[in-house]
Amino acid sequence: MTDHLPDAPEGYEISTDPARLDGDLVYHWLSTDAYWAVGRTRQRHDRAVAGSLNFGLYESGSGRQAAYARVVTDHATFAWLCDVYVARDDRGKGLGTALVEAIAGHLTPCGLTRITLATQDAHGVYEKIGFRRLVAPEQWMTLGLMDPGPIDF
Predict the structure, then answer these.
(1) What is the DSSP string of 96-145?
(2) CA-derived radius of gyration, the chain
(3) Which strand (E) or helix (H) includes residue 43?
(4) What number is the average pLDDT over the span 31-53?
(5) Euclidean distance between CA atoms 47 and 126, whole angstroms
(6) How high is the mean pLDDT of the chain?
(7) Are strands 78-86 and 12-15 parallel, antiparallel or unpaired?
(8) Pairing with 52, which of 41, 63, 74, 76 sits 20 to 30 Å away (CA)?
(9) What is the three-class DSSP state of 84?
């Protein structure tokens, strides 16, 4: 698979090249502004990034990173999309939708059975892309080793 994805919005690039990621910026975004990752330690963050397929969305001219997402996958049957984040100043431009569409397109050749995700508040965004709520949630289980359950804000 290539490290540069063709489906970026005008004026942006999407890449899986880990050398392009602004690790400090991504850590700051997630650990301070993403409800699901607030307080995540840098060590835990770095381990998560190292064990994932990472996607960055960058301004074409400046190379400034504007969004991030990661996927945990075996590249054969299953993928979990997580840590999708668009910089506050870049929201409302369709960048998150474009990033997730590019990720789905990038993973399509793998023949995955499914890509899953969890969201507290962005169901409508993901439904536009084709994600749907679990048809049979009673079939799914989780082992929350450190998970306190649903987070209410």
Answers:
(1) HHHHHHHHHHHHGGGT-SEEE---SS-HHHHHHHT----S-GGG-----S
(2) 15
(3) helix 42-50
(4) 96
(5) 26
(6) 90
(7) unpaired
(8) 63
(9) strand
Contact by Cβ (8 Å): 77, 68: no
> Which residue reads 């489906």 in tokens?
7
At 2 the pLDDT is: 46
Q: Between helices 42-50 and 23-33, what is the axis angle to 10°?
A: 120
pTM for the whole thing? 0.89
As given in the structure block, the two tokens for residue 35 are 């409800």
Q: What is the mean pLDDT of residues 109-137?
A: 92
* Cβ count near 77 (within 10 Å): 11
Taking the C-alpha atoms of residue 8 and residue 56, their distance in angstroms, rounded to an integer, is: 11
Instruction: Reply yes or no on whether the pLDDT at 148 is more than 80.
Output: no
Determine how β-strand 114-116 pairs with β-strand 12-15.
Answer: unpaired
Residue 69 phi, psi dihedral angles, 5° rounding: -155, 155
